[in-house]
Amino acid sequence: EAKAALATAQQGEQAAQAPATAAAKTLARATAQQKVAEAGLANIKKQVATATAALAAAEKAAQDFEKAAEEKTQAAAQAAAKRKAAVDAAAALAQTQQSEQAAQAQVTAAAQKLTEAQTQKTAADEALANATNQVATAAAASQAAEQAALAVEATAKQAAEDAAKPDAEKK
Predict the structure, then answer these.
(1) Are 75 and 62 in contact (CB under 8 A)?
(2) Which tens digit of pLDDT belongs to each residue from 85-122?
(3) Residue 62, phi-psi category: left (phi > 0), alpha (psi -120 to 50), beta (remainder)
(4) How far apart are CA 148 and CA 154, in angstroms?
(5) Which of 9, 38, 52, 54 lies 20 to 30 A from 28 at CA?
């Protein structure tokens, strides 16, 4: 019975090892995905800052050219071109902001996956520790049963030897 309990406990330990390994791999993937998403978000934030600066510069230039356009026709054409650049920069800024929002969603999702993976790993680690404790307990019980069996065997052997002796030797 003790050997069967030991075997059962070892099977439980092996069964707990697979989810623990899978949870560790899921945790590693989620951590990597979060790092990639955070790097993308940082890059997009830099692009937003650059686009914002370009928009401000383009708008200022457009205003400057509008003032000069009142005096010169050629300056009016240049002001229109600068305005178009400002509109293009505003469109680029809007697109970059949308990309930033998408990247932020990815970072949030990766953080959630990371939390879930950590929870799964903790549960799997606890199950593994429990199975390991059961294996140790079963091993100790198996060893005690083995020693008891050896003691009973030795006593039985001694009793058989005593019974086999002639009555004269027993006294």
Answers:
(1) no
(2) 999 999 998 999 999 999 899 999 989 998 999 999 99
(3) alpha
(4) 10
(5) 9
Tokens of 150: 């050896």
Residue type for position 90:
A
**pTM for the full predicted model:** 0.44
The pLDDT-based confidence of 84 (bands split at 50, 70, 90) is: very high
pLDDT single digits (tens) 35-67: 999 999 899 899 989 989 998 999 999 888 777
Q: Of 129, 118, 128, whose CA–CA distance to 18 is shortest?
A: 128
| CA–CA separation, 122 and 135 (whole Å) | 20
Q: How far apart are CA 95 and CA 52, in angstroms?
A: 12
Closest CA to 40 of 86, 97, 106, 89: 106
What are all long-range contacts of 6-13, with beta carbons under 8 Å and residues at least 24 apart?
A: 6/135, 6/138, 6/139, 6/141, 6/142, 8/138, 9/131, 9/134, 9/135, 9/137, 9/138, 9/139, 10/135, 10/138, 12/131, 12/134, 12/135, 13/128, 13/131, 13/132, 13/134, 13/135
Q: Per-residue DSSP letters for 117-160? A: HHHHHHHHHHHHHHHHHHHHHHHHHHHHHHHHHHHHHHHHHHHH
What whole-number distance in Å separates Cα of residue 30 and Cα of residue 49? 29
